[in-house]
Amino acid sequence: MNEPDTHDVIRVRGARENNLRGVDLDIPKRRLTVFTGVSGSGKSSLVFGTIAAESQRLINETYPTFVQQFMGELSRPDVDALENLSATIRVDQERMAANARSTVGTATDVHAMLRVLFSRLGQPHVGSSQAFSFNVPSISGAGAVTIATGAKKGQKQRRSFEITGGMCPECEGLGQVSDIDLDQLVDPTLSLNAGAILVPGYTADGWMVRVYSESGFVDADKPVGEYTAQQRQDFLYKEQTKVRIANTNMTYEGLVPKVTKSMLQKDRDALQPHVRAFVDRAVTFVACPACEGTRLNEGARSSRIGDVNIADAAAMQITDLAAWVRTIDDPTVAPLVQGLRDTLDAFVHIGLGYLSLDRASGTLSGGEAQRTKMIRHLGSSLTDITYVFDEPTAGLHPHDIQRMNETLQQLRDKGNTVLVVEHKPEVIEIADHVVDLGPRAGRDGGTVQFEGDVAGLRASDTLTGRFLDHRARLKGTVRTATGAMPIRGATQHNLRGVDVDVPRGVLTVITGVAGSGKSSLIHGNLTAFDDVVVVDQTAIKGSRRSSPATYTGILDAVRAAFAKANGVKPALFSANSEGACPACRGLGVIVTQLGFQSTVETVCELCAGTGFSDDVLDYTLDGKNIAEVLSMSVVEASEFLVKGPAVAVLGRLRDVGLGYLTLGQSLSTLSGGERQRLKLAISMAKAGAIYVLDEPTTGLHLADVDTLLRLLDQLVDAGNTVVVIEHHQAVMAHADWIIDLGPGAGRDGGTIVFEGSPADLVAGRHTLTAEHLARYVGADPAPANGA
Questions:
Q1: Using an 8 Å Cβ cutoff, are 109 and 47 in contact?
Q2: Per-residue pLDDT tens for 74-98?
Q3: What is the C-alpha to C-alpha distance for residues 518 and 692, in angstroms, rounded to an integer?
Q4: Nearest-angstrom CA–CA distance, 134 and 295
Q5: Number of neighbouring beta carbons within 10 Å of residue 281
Q6: Residue 26: pLDDT band by 50, 70, 90 thresholds?
């Protein structure tokens, strides 16, 4: 077979990253290619782990060495050859960093355009664009500057300076202030030596407390409630000062500012669970009274275009903001206004018109975050770029998928290569080229099953080809509710005083377009009931050492079995304890720091990446050592561990479709959908519970959706209540009861537009969901009068 000598394809040869089995592939450039296959078949390993990773590595190598040391050295993917790569931009579902200063506006540069607009047209004029930035403080002073030109070149002069920023001085641009409950910090009935400080990590004999008890400012044996006014001030609020403790110079600082800096000013989600729980107890956040939550100082808020200031504009729903911007007709800012219009229109077109620019970026869902990232690229002048997307329809109602498809095609038509990992038939249908991987997951995947056009995929005998036109049917009969969970007057976010009864003992599906209020209704109200188990896609807290085996407790059972079989203690079989390799300390890799935030990881030569010492690997259980057991998939482990407490957990992992996961792989490698199914497997042991699942079909192949439906039935039939927030029509069709929110998103949503069975929803044909579900199940067209 003659190899094409064209540069119009990305040529992949011998790709072996993760479970890929020497994949050879030619991917057409400047086309839209969709990668399909079951979860774990190797799609992400090929697109993200191989193509995108190598593109990024090659780009990094073009930078000077001193720049590379700050970026970190990327390892080359396990592939024989990759040719004709272009610069690659990843647009994935990773949630945006929960930075308190990042908003939808700042993350997309729209706020920067608004700031320039107000600096040009706002009255009264208060300064340049930075005068409208809540991240820039207003400061003045004097400092020495070096003269760069002229007769006095090289000399220093003292010059005064003034920076006019828009930051509210009270909340420092955060929009909220914290009120600390001192009773959660200190028990006034106790002395310091008796454990008065209640903050996590402040033990009576630890250094954190000794700085206070041995400082000389307070009596360590006197109850804190009996301190004099000065002692109380020194203990709680004293500014930093040097003290000498045990012949060591240390910095003393009042407990309140110290705790504020060490815990309260950090990203809440990054805190350890017990510290996060303490922060939630001890701190109440309220809107800053000085700026009314706008983050901006009085000067920035005083400048207006018409009767709108920049805080008003940022708080508008983007659809409303786009309409307001269209009223601005000033030739001096015409190019700026046109760019702003185009970007806001892109938000609306991509299904995010219900957001506001002042929405904290860390609160966006994975799907919203991915679509927000796309906004940056839609107006880009760059061409011949490779864009890679990870399920861009995640979180989208069927009504919105068409607009997402148009966006992907728009990127392609600008001369870019678009690679999409996706399961939805609606996206597969628009592909110029399809690559189907499989046949199954994990070790049973990693090979190309089909490549070609959609018609060829449909005619193929691959799993994806067979299920491409598969449709679930409406239930003939539905279950009868055993009770109800009443929600009354719900007003969270855009909800408009919603009253609804969520039935017990059945499968209820909550539907509606993105932004209609589904999550606000369920997460904001249903979780107040007893026995509610929320199973979502948020990251699982844990270190890089966490794995499915540790998270599910399987490792405890495995360690106990090894210890019993060999007559030694269980701690030997933990890479985090006595069994750790002495060289890598159980990580399996050697981590080398090269510079600021820069690391390189290499496989540990002593343990060959297992993380265990040689002595531990000499012990076996039924012929396998601990490293070999942890490298097993869930399916393989089910066949190996046939008795003991691990059997039930492994069975549940298989039930939720995670049979391909290996026991020892890092949790950080799991997708959002995989994390949710892992949490579900842990929770399934509880009977009589109320399960709340948030888009459980995310990441599921068409063939696996039927498995999920059987699992949901299993939960309900066991006496549980299951409530699912979902857009997939197969799940809607399988529901006993549907609650549809809308009719639109944001301000146009927030009401119940339908309650009832799926059959009644289709028959009525009165909502967007009804129309799409009717088409999905092949119902007769609605009558012309809409009745």
A1: no
A2: 778 999 999 999 999 998 877 776 6
A3: 12
A4: 6
A5: 13
A6: very high
pLDDT, position 495: 95
One-letter amino acid of 429: E
Classify residue 280 by its DSSP letter.
Answer: H
Cα–Cα–Cα angle for 406, 411, 415, rounded to 5 degrees: 135
User: Look-up: residue for tokens 């009717």?
Assistant: 774
Which positions ≥6 away from 265 have C-beta within 8 Å?
Answer: none
Helix (H, G, I), strand (E, B) or coil at 450: strand
Separation between Cα atoms, residue 451 and residue 456, nearest integer Å: 8
The span from the CA of 158 to the CA of 576, in Å, is 57
Report the run of H or E that residue 245 belongs to, with start and end: strand 241-245
Q: Name the residue among 591, 593, 497 with its Cα closest to residue 544.
A: 591
What is the distance between the alpha carbons of residues 500 and 751, in angstroms, rounded to a whole number? 10
Q: What is the CA radius of gyration of the chain?
A: 29
DSSP string, 91-144: E--PPPP--TT-BHHHHTTHHHHHHHHHHHH-BS---SGGGG-TTS--EEEEEE
Angle between helices 672-683 and 646-655 (to 10 degrees): 130
Q: Per-residue pLDDT tens for 559-593?
A: 999 999 999 999 999 988 899 999 998 988 887 65
- The model's confidence at residue 542, banded by pLDDT at 50, 70 and 90, is low
Confidence band of 595 (pLDDT split at 50, 70, 90): very low
Choose the most confident range, by mean pLDDT, from 298-307, 391-400, 586-595, 666-675: 298-307
Q: Can you give the length of the chain in residues?
A: 787
- HEC states along 381-447? CCCCCEEEEECCCCCCCHHHHHHHHHHHHHHHHCCCEEEEECCCHHHHCCCCEEEEEECCCHHHCCE
CA distance 426 to 442: 26
Residue range 371-399: average pLDDT?
87
**pLDDT above 50 for 784:** no
pLDDT: which is higher, 493 or 310: 310
- Element housing 248 (H / E): strand 248-252
Q: Which amino acid is at 389?
A: F
489-520 exposure pattern, b = at least 16 Cβ within 10 A, e = fewer: ebeeebbeebebebbbbbbbbbbbbbbbbbbb
Q: Which of 465, 441, 469 is nearest to 453 (CA)?
A: 465
Burial class (CB in 10 A: 0-12, 13-18, 19+), 30: middle
Q: Identify the band that residue 785 occupies on the pLDDT scale cut at 50, 70 and 90.
A: very low
d(CA 133, CA 173) in angstroms, rounded, equals 9
- Number of C-alpha atoms within 13 angstroms, CB side, residue 511? 33
CA geometry: angle 308, 346, 748, nearest 5 deg:
65
Alpha-carbon distance of 43 to 37, in angstroms, equals: 7
Residue 477: alpha-carbon gap to chain centroid: 38
Q: Report residue 177's pLDDT band, with 50, 70 and 90 as the boundaries.
A: confident
DSSP 544: T
- What is the predicted pLDDT for the residue at 288? 93
- Residues 472-478 have a mean pLDDT of 91
